[in-house]
Design a protein that fits this description.
about 750 residues, mainly alpha, five-stranded parallel beta sheet, two-stranded antiparallel ribbon
Length: about 750
């Protein structure tokens, strides 16, 4: 794609993800929220206050709870705690009992110590601490209490310190009303403004996101005040927002100077490059959100976290984002800002697509993400619109992060949009689809191989030799596992084989080197595991040789370390994927566990029966096409062993399709295998008819390769079968094999 075409495509996508959803970002979720007031959850249930007698009951239970914990009568403490929780007090009443009526001022220390108790006593103490903390936090977030704290800021030092503490508890929920004071022009606003600025700094990190979001829409004077606050707090999240304001063409000199001073003060405390553009900084922030940095989420244990939106007519309002997708929603938002500032940042578009897929994948069932408006289209829509150039990094990110679902999403989008060259990215620096052929999750491996084969590349390419073995793996039944065992001598090989026997059912291929076992591997339908029981130098060499054998290169490797070599081997293979080093002198169960872990790492999540059959059918169809079309990019002969094994597959459609494909392969072993099922298969007449049809196809294409015994059995079938489909199919195979005319005459004249 030329540079002009790329810029045009990028601008089209940017317009879709930045302009179309603008209304969704700007509008509060609750249209009835008053201007300037954040939409807030009701932290206290709207129930009537409890009567004095009910509060007395609650107080008695609370005092019993604390007393019994202190005198180590834990069963009585549990009873009091459960009874108190059953009263279901609202936040105000609970805190009145705990902090106003109760004589126990140091109750929190008692409960914290009690949380260390085993069983229900510790659980009840933890629940009570959580209830009290939630009540305190819920009340702190109430709008009238926040306003009351703001009004106390200029009433002397004691009131100011108390108010600041209350605002710190309210955290980001205090932002809308604090910002109202900064932007207001009333006399009371002007009186409070200096104190509010200090209070914002005291609130600290929780208030950075809402203030940064408001920054671009503020008038110059409040914008300078907010920039001062952000600079004094010093949290690097503010950097891209400040830089964007510094670069605004309409910024006056005073405002730009304040912004620059705030920006520089934060940069001095971080590793941020001074020459980075605002778009670069937004992309950097988006990457941090995507990486799910813990410092970027304020309430990781709550069900929702807040995304802030500012508009002059509504002030600061928030959207409640389900916590499991908060990081992804914010990564999309900040990547979007990067694209608004510079549509040519390809990495920002790829990141936006990645985060959008992951957001959809992680959104809890039944939950709504208000950051993604109804006018937005599916993640797959935007991914396919972005095209292969931007999808390759999405797949690369998925493989790096071991995000199997994202990898499947990316492969599906690539499969829908890419030509063979762009799918494989043969002229690019990264080739994630080829890397996906060795990914631990089998769905990813299978989808990658299917996508590559479906693209029908016209010539061979590096890494392409893995496609047919992976398709062959998809054909196989999951229960049949093959393992290669390598060792310098028979004793080492036998010991490693015994470890395998303890770990599960494996068909073993045994040898003293990769070169020797390669012939066995070529005849196997696949390799699921390699076990190496050799001294250090030989083990290193064996691992390297395994990785150069295209049928084994994706298999996990377990190295049984000899005495004193486990540390050196672990260091040697610390950067190797799917290499597990185990002390060879460990207990048998520990060794068996390592084997099972290694196999699990490459097999991935279990396929349902329907999924397995769908993959097998798709893979067989592609193998059939590759063989018929003689595609030079692939060697269909690599699937022979898997197809032969599939003849006995319990899934009849798989066995029959394998026979149809094998009929195109030349070779005595193949034709005789088909004939064996055609003559004596016990799965019913319909199966025999289909196998006989495949035998006839093989004979027409490759001549007669049946053994004398099979020929006699086929003739007997022709002579003895009752009239019908089986007899007709047997006769057709007989004719295709060009057997002696005497057989026909005998059939006519007997």
């Amino acid at each position: 794609m030329s540079r002009s075409m790329f810029i045009g495509a990028a601008l089209a996508i940017v317009s879709l993800i930045t302009l179309a959803p603008a209304a969704a970002w700007a509008q509060p979720r609750d249209a009835a929220s008053p201007p300037g007031r954040a939409q807030q959850p009701l932290p206290d249930p709207p129930e009537a206050a409890r009567s004095d007698s009910e509060l007395e009951e609650a107080l008695a239970l609370w005092e019993d709870l604390i007393h019994y914990y202190r005198v180590a009568q834990h069963d009585l403490a549990v009873g009091a705690g459960n009874a108190l929780m059953a009263l279901d007090l609202n936040h105000s009443d609970l805190l009145r009992v705990v902090e106003e009526l109760s004589p126990y001022e140091d109750y929190d220390r008692t409960l914290r110590q009690a949380t260390e108790l085993a069983g229900e006593p510790g659980q009840v103490a933890a629940q009570m601490l959580e209830l009290v903390g939630g009540a305190r936090l819920g009340l702190a977030r109430q709008g009238d209490r926040i306003r009351g704290a703001i009004d106390r800021l200029d009433r002397g030092l004691r009131h100011r310190l108390s108010a600041q503490q209350q605002l710190r508890r309210a955290g980001e929920y205090s932002a809308p009303q604090l910002l109202e004071i900064i932007t207001g022009d009333g006399s009371r606003d002007r009186e409070l403004a200096p104190y509010v600025i200090d209070a914002m700094v005291e609130v600290g990190r929780p208030i950075v996101a809402p203030l940064a979001e408001a920054l671009p829409a503020l008038a110059p004077a409040p914008r300078r005040s907010v920039a001062e606050v952000l600079g004094r707090i010093g949290y690097p999240m503010a950097l891209p927002y400040l830089k964007a304001e510094i670069d605004r063409e309409d910024a006056d000199a005073d405002t730009r100077r304040v912004m620059q001073r705030a920006f520089d003060s934060i940069v001095e405390e971080t590793s941020t490059p001074r020459r980075a553009t605002a778009a670069d900084l937004f992309l950097r922030l988006a990457e941090d959100f995507y990486a799910q940095r813990g410092s970027l989420i304020l309430q990781p244990n709550e069900s929702y976290n807040l995304m802030w939106v500012y508009a002059p007519d509504t002030g600061l309002v928030f959207k409640q984002i389900p916590t499991p997708v908060f990081h992804d929603a914010m990564a999309m938002r900040t990547a979007r800002r990067a694209l608004q500032l510079n549509p040519n940042i390809s990495a920002a578009l790829s990141l936006w697509v990645s985060a959008n897929f992951r957001r959809e994948n992680n959104l809890p069932d039944g939950e709504d993400d208000p950051s993604y408006g109804n006018e937005m289209r599916s993640p797959h829509y935007y991914a396919t619109l972005a095209g292969p150039r931007h999808l390759q990094p999405v797949l690369q990110r998925a493989l790096r992060d071991r995000d199997a679902q994202l990898a499947l999403d990316a492969i599906a989008a690539l499969d829908s949009t890419a030509t063979a060259d762009s799918l494989l990215n043969l002229d690019g620096r990264i080739q994630p689809l080829l890397a996906a052929l060795n990914y631990p999750d089998r769905r990813v491996r299978f989808d990658a191989a299917i996508a590559i084969a479906t693209a029908r590349p016209s010539e061979s390419f590096e890494g392409g030799q893995r496609v047919i073995p992976v398709l062959a793996e998809a054909v196989r039944e999951a229960g049949e596992l093959y393992a290669v065992v390598l060792g310098p001598d028979n004793e080492a090989i036998n010991n490693a084989s015994q470890v395998l026997a303890d770990a599960g059912e494996f068909r073993t291929l045994r040898a003293d080197s990769v070169d020797v076992v390669a012939a066995q591997v070529s005849e196997a339908p696949g390799v699921d595991l390699v076990v190496i029981n050799s001294p250090f130098a030989q083990a290193e060499s064996a691992v390297a040789n395994v990785r150069h054998n295209y049928k084994m290169m994706g298999a996990p490797i377990v190295v049984l370390a000899h005495a004193g070599e486990d540390v050196s081997l672990r260091r040697s293979f610390e950067d190797e994927d799917h290499v597990i080093v185990v002390d060879g002198e460990s207990e048998p169960e520990e060794l068996a566990s390592a084997i099972r872990e290694a196999v699990g790492s490459i097999i991935g999540s279990t396929l349902s029966a329907d999924e397995a059959e769908a993959y097998a059918s798709h893979a067989l169809a592609l193998l059939h096409e590759v063989k018929i079309g003689s595609n030079p990019a692939f060697d269909a002969d690599d699937a022979r062993a898997a197809l032969l094994a599939a003849l006995d597959d319990s899934r009849e459609i798989i066995a029959l399709t394998a026979a149809d494909s094998l009929a195109r392969f030349d070779g005595e072993r193949i034709q005789q295998a088909i004939a064996t099922r055609a003559i004596s298969d016990e799965r019913g007449e319909d199966m025999q008819v289909r196998f006989l049809n495949a035998l006839a196809t093989s004979a027409r294409m490759h001549g007669n390769h049946l053994s004398p015994v099979q020929l006699r059995e086929l003739v007997a079938m022709v002579n003895e079968a009752s009239p019908g489909n089986l007899a007709d199919a047997a006769a057709e195979a007989h004719g295709a094999l060009n057997l002696p005319t005497s057989n026909v005459i005998d059939s006519i004249t007997r």
